[in-house]
Amino acid sequence: MSTPTGPVGPAVPGRPAASDGTGHAPALAVDGLTVRAGDRTLVDDVSLTVGAGERVGLIGESGSGKSMTALAVMGLLPDGVTATGAVDVAGERDLLARGERRLAPLRGSLMSMVFQEPMTALDPLVRVGAQVAEVVRLHDGGCSRQRAAERAVALLGEVGLPDPEHAARAYPHQLSGGQRQRVLVAMAMANDPALLVADEPTTALDVTVQAQVLDLMGELVARRGTGLLFITHDLAVVSRVCERVLVMKDGAVVEAGPVAEVFAAPRHPYTRGLLAASDLTATDERGRLFTVETADGYRPGGAARLRGADVSLRQVEPPGGPAGPGTDDALIRLHQVTKRYVRSRGSVLHAVTGGRAGQRARTVDALCGVSFAVAPGERFGLVGESGSGKTTALRLLAGLDTPTSGTVEVAGVRLAGPGPDGWPGGGPAGRAGRVQTAGPRDLARVRADLQMVFQDPMGSLDPRMSVGEIVAEPLLNPANRRGLEEAATAEGRRELVREVLAAVGLPVDAGRRYPHQLSGGQRQRVSIARALVCRPRVLVADEPVSALDVSVRAQVLNLLSDLADERGLTLVLVSHDLGVVRHLCDRVAVMRAGEIVEQGSTEELWEAPQHDYTRRLQAATPTLARTAR
Amino acid sequence: MTRHLLGLVAQLLATLVVATVLIFLVLRVLPGDAAVVALGLNATPEALAQWRALHGTDRPLLVQYGEWVGGMLRGDLGTSFVTGRELTPLVADRLQVTLILVGLGMLLALLAAVPLGTLAAVKHRSPWGTVIAGASQVGVAIPNFLVGVLLVSYFAVRLGWLPAGGWTPPAVDPAQFWRHVILPVVALGTVQAAIVTRYVRSAVLEVMREDFLRTARAAGHTRGSALVRHGLRNAGVPVVTVVGVQLAAMLVGAVVVERVFVVPGLGSLLVDSVAQRDLQAVQSIVAVLVLVVVVVNFLVDFLYTVLDPRLRVAAR
């Protein structure tokens, strides 16, 4: 079962790259590419080939030079960054030697590129049909406006936009992220390029949308015989799309070969480390994920057995057990919670002149009757795509917002619920009665017990405070010092900060540094330290690893596991990634459009999902295991 | 879209109502009885009462306000308390002069600022960019009357190419009109050009970092053509805001340049009227200025929605 058989799809395993035997020039030939910014070398002597119609993945972590390689090929390097070496695209020789004026006509016709961030990659002021038509006319001066517009509609249809004629008249902000990425793919494929460069094209998208866009790109390049250079940090995505893969580290290619071969039997330790760290189903004997450093014990495909051992190990620990707590002993309880946001019309004058402002106001139901409970010591996961309401649920838990109706209880404090004379708990959805909310004193108690870790470690740390100050800040609030009398003095606080920084694995001198001097993983450790310094009982983490590199992701997830074990923490984890939740959590709730469609123990839910949406989510989540099988 | 337009018009009307009430009340509350000012401190009570009856200042405030606003709606700004002349033709005449100065000044400013600001942004790493940015910095710091005085002393006094001051309406003698208008317009325009250049530069710099410009280049545009095709219109939104604000500021600010060049503009009329305590003239002139500013703001708001489809949706 674990014997690798080739990649899925119409691949030609093991095809040599440079000369494909048909006499065609390769779609891309890079020889000795070196990219420098000042005296720093970003890409060091990289050579690679993409055969005509071949799909090649370029993987690496942030700073590995993979994006710079792509930009150098396209001649789009930022100011102050220079490239040397040889780049040939489909027989056009030595593109690096060409000036902007001679290179620009090749972009969009011979070679094209799709970027990571679809939300900002389209001109917000121009209809998408016109933007696609522009690419057509840019390279075919003889094409009339009329013909180009028709061609644009055809292309938009080809990339799977429903009702392409209507879509062509839309402005970018009227389309979703996935739809915008489809438009960008249409622009890139408009003139049948020989080479398509895709730089993390699906990283910003939801998993189900990612799967659709990946399938679309794979299908288009296969149909048109376009060579694909696919850049990503996500190994599972590469295994879904590509035939051959190159691994970059610190500006150099460390390993290359067919996907099935490299993933099944990596030769370079770094590749092995990346694979191990990416595989959320594989754990060591302690039930921890492999990191790049501990990857020696990792064997691709040997995951399931270890995982089973891990589960039986863990089932002993949490008192509530994976069956879920009774409502009595729950530490966190949400009952029939709804949250309705009202988008106001903005101007006061509109209310005056329109006279129908209240009627016109738009409402958004972020949560429609959500109930769940978390037992002490349990690890609870909330999974869902953007807009599913998972972040709203967290905001209510932390007392940062109040529900429209329903009951929220955390650590014995009723944050929101019906008043003493109010209607019985639950009540009909909507506004059937006033919700009574906790006072500041109760809120302070909850916050001492429940702390949060946010997604973006850079954005959630004050850049002008040192790490020591950041971590000590919660202790300045007397409400957070319950049972921590030593925190009343500056010396006592310093001691507590030192202790917690050590607990999250940061070096001793980290307290004196500033956030910008740390790496992404270290910053997330600081966030965790800040959350833990006042010894909360509940740690709530909102997408804590989605902004991190693969190898760092494993470290941070392990850290969360360790801390939860050592300190008896109750974990609530929100993630779009079913894999992350599956690894860390005992119980999971799957959210969609403000509702919990399914909840249960992680293994049950993974092995036998009941709801159709859970199955779709599972199928769309790219995993390495599927390739190795 | 229509709803949004109606909303803007309603906003415009509401602003005008509030503004006229404020102007009217402030001028009544201020110390200094118009009758005493007109007739002097030694005037007899009978004479004062007669004057008040003549000009209607002895009637209830609400009646006075209603008459004033009603008159303006018919295009009648009332009569001057001091000279007894009809205000409407006088203000119309002066307003025309100021609008010509301000309009041409801003046109000149934009003609210089858009290319210079764009160039400064595109070349922001080269000496040229620094030179333009530095020059615009200096330009902002120079008051426009100083520019006016320098222009007069060189082009009028030393070279004698153009008149040092005065005014000929365009309908009377177009050639003379242009000779008179050049120096004041240049004086007004250069300072505005400096201010707007700085905004254009920063707007273009901002837009040059946008992802969609990279997309445009990946689709086959050169740096330059991507900026022209997709960058400038995006950079236009913040620039339109500044131009709107500056137009309003110039309208009143023109008074200094009008003084330097002895041009009979609305600003000079306002200053004279204030000096003479001509209550009726002051309140009517201020109301007209408010009207012009509000209309400019209305056009700016409307232009936003033309430029940016996202605001159209938000406005709907």
TrEMBL record, chain A:
<dbReference type="GO" id="GO:0016887">
    <property type="term" value="F:ATP hydrolysis activity"/>
</dbReference>
<feature type="domain" description="ABC transporter">
    <location>
        <begin position="28"/>
        <end position="275"/>
    </location>
</feature>
<dbReference type="InterPro" id="IPR003439">
    <property type="entry name" value="ABC_transporter-like_ATP-bd"/>
</dbReference>
<dbReference type="Pfam" id="PF08352">
    <property type="entry name" value="oligo_HPY"/>
</dbReference>
<dbReference type="InterPro" id="IPR013563">
    <property type="entry name" value="Oligopep_ABC_C"/>
</dbReference>
<dbReference type="InterPro" id="IPR027417">
    <property type="entry name" value="P-loop_NTPase"/>
</dbReference>
<protein>
    <submittedName>
        <fullName>ABC transporter ATP-binding protein</fullName>
    </submittedName>
</protein>
<dbReference type="Pfam" id="PF00005">
    <property type="entry name" value="ABC_tran"/>
</dbReference>
<keyword id="KW-1003">Cell membrane</keyword>
<feature type="domain" description="ABC transporter">
    <location>
        <begin position="332"/>
        <end position="618"/>
    </location>
</feature>
<dbReference type="InterPro" id="IPR050388">
    <property type="entry name" value="ABC_Ni/Peptide_Import"/>
</dbReference>
<keyword id="KW-0813">Transport</keyword>
<comment type="similarity">
    <text>Belongs to the ABC transporter superfamily.</text>
</comment>
<keyword id="KW-0472">Membrane</keyword>
<dbReference type="InterPro" id="IPR003593">
    <property type="entry name" value="AAA+_ATPase"/>
</dbReference>
<keyword id="KW-0547">Nucleotide-binding</keyword>
<keyword id="KW-0067">ATP-binding</keyword>
<dbReference type="GO" id="GO:0005886">
    <property type="term" value="C:plasma membrane"/>
</dbReference>
<dbReference type="GO" id="GO:0005524">
    <property type="term" value="F:ATP binding"/>
</dbReference>
<feature type="compositionally biased region" description="Low complexity">
    <location>
        <begin position="1"/>
        <end position="18"/>
    </location>
</feature>
<dbReference type="InterPro" id="IPR017871">
    <property type="entry name" value="ABC_transporter-like_CS"/>
</dbReference>
<feature type="region of interest" description="Disordered">
    <location>
        <begin position="1"/>
        <end position="25"/>
    </location>
</feature>
UniProtKB/TrEMBL annotation, chain B:
<dbReference type="GO" id="GO:0071916">
    <property type="term" value="F:dipeptide transmembrane transporter activity"/>
</dbReference>
<dbReference type="Pfam" id="PF19300">
    <property type="entry name" value="BPD_transp_1_N"/>
</dbReference>
<keyword id="KW-1003">Cell membrane</keyword>
<feature type="transmembrane region" description="Helical">
    <location>
        <begin position="97"/>
        <end position="122"/>
    </location>
</feature>
<feature type="transmembrane region" description="Helical">
    <location>
        <begin position="177"/>
        <end position="200"/>
    </location>
</feature>
<feature type="transmembrane region" description="Helical">
    <location>
        <begin position="134"/>
        <end position="157"/>
    </location>
</feature>
<dbReference type="InterPro" id="IPR045621">
    <property type="entry name" value="BPD_transp_1_N"/>
</dbReference>
<keyword id="KW-0812">Transmembrane</keyword>
<feature type="domain" description="ABC transmembrane type-1">
    <location>
        <begin position="95"/>
        <end position="304"/>
    </location>
</feature>
<dbReference type="Pfam" id="PF00528">
    <property type="entry name" value="BPD_transp_1"/>
</dbReference>
<protein>
    <submittedName>
        <fullName>ABC transporter permease</fullName>
    </submittedName>
</protein>
<dbReference type="InterPro" id="IPR035906">
    <property type="entry name" value="MetI-like_sf"/>
</dbReference>
<comment type="similarity">
    <text>Belongs to the binding-protein-dependent transport system permease family.</text>
</comment>
<feature type="transmembrane region" description="Helical">
    <location>
        <begin position="281"/>
        <end position="307"/>
    </location>
</feature>
<dbReference type="GO" id="GO:0005886">
    <property type="term" value="C:plasma membrane"/>
</dbReference>
<keyword id="KW-0472">Membrane</keyword>
<keyword id="KW-0813">Transport</keyword>
<feature type="transmembrane region" description="Helical">
    <location>
        <begin position="239"/>
        <end position="261"/>
    </location>
</feature>
<dbReference type="InterPro" id="IPR000515">
    <property type="entry name" value="MetI-like"/>
</dbReference>
<keyword id="KW-1133">Transmembrane helix</keyword>
